[in-house]
Write a structure and sequence with these properties.
The chain is globular. Strand 11 (157-161), helix 7 (169-185) and strand 12 (189-193) form a beta-alpha-beta unit. The protein has 9 helices and 14 strands. It has 242 residues and is of the alpha/beta class. It has helices spanning 44-52, 74-80, 97-105, 111-119, 125-128, 139-151, 169-185, 197-200, 220-232, and strands spanning 2-9, 12-13, 16-17, 21-28, 33-37, 59-64, 67-68, 82-85, 92-96, 132-133, 157-161, 189-193, 205-210, 213-219.
Length: 242
């Protein structure tokens, strides 16, 4: 189980303190899928980076299965069981896709396993397995390769920051199927940061972050109708829309 207590992040920018994350608390049960959504610039991606240790909080604590991981490095958190997918994946010139998948898995993977991982995210595996992870790959290709690398290893918790970004419609459908299958197994907890309605509809619970705070948090049936009405400017009398 993931437990976040009173998390605060106030970075200094040009000598001025900014409030990016302000007193956020929530829990995520084993096997649960939480989708985090909300306005751009509200703190969603920062929240994900705090969970992975890319950014360090100025206050609060993060627990994974009862262990305080607040002071853990990125590597320590990965070893503890957190897998992370960047919104904009890094590139590694000189490293092949096959090598990256093996490094991510923590063991040497066969060509078949690598091909299966790539095929599951909508890539023609034989065309990519020996390619380098450099600027010859498009943003969408990079995104799918990184998602495949995160899924190459079992984790306690998966965190994906806008996994749909830069991906075509056909590949997006395959990606959704991957997340659905992962969620059906109920072996890992999943946090997805997304604006996509189809991904939001998959959630057990939805968190809306606005201005660095939790604006709404609840089960899909409670939050989703009001969220969609807000996006479309609905003036219905549904209590969820208030």
């Amino acid at each position: 189980m993931l437990e976040v207590k009173n998390l605060v992040f106030h970075p200094i920018d040009n000598g001025v303190e900014k409030s990016i994350i302000e007193d956020i608390s929530f829990t995520l049960e084993d096997g649960e899928m939480l989708v985090i959504t909300g306005p751009n610039g509200g703190g969603k991606s920062t929240m994900a980076k705090l969970l992975m240790g890319i950014e360090k909080p100025d206050g609060g604590q993060i627990f994974l299965d009862g262990e305080d991981i607040t002071g853990f490095s990125i590597a320590d958190r990965a070893n503890a069981g957190i897998g992370f997918g960047f919104q904009q994946p890094p590139r590694f010139k000189g490293m092949t896709v096959e090598r990256m998948l093996s490094l991510a898995a923590g063991e040497e993977l066969s060509d078949k396993v690598c091909c299966d991982l790539l095929s599951n995210v909508g890539l023609c595996a034989r065309e990519y397995i020996k390619r380098e992870i450099d600027n010859t790959l498009s943003g969408g290709e990079m995104k799918r390769i990184e998602i495949a690398s995160v899924l190459a290893k079992k984790h306690k918790l998966f965190v994906f920051d806008e996994p749909e970004a830069g991906i075509d419609l056909w590949s997006f459908s395959m990606l959704v199927k991957q997340f659905e299958q992962l969620h059906q197994n109920k072996k890992e907890s999943i946090i997805l940061i997304s604006h996509q309605e189809r991904i939001i509809q998959m959630a057990d619970r939805i968190m809306v972050i606005k201005d660095g705070k939790i604006d709404k948090l609840g089960i899909r049936e409670q939050v989703f109708p009001g969220l969609m009405c807000h996006e479309t400017g609905c003036r219905c009398q549904n209590p969820a829309c208030s």
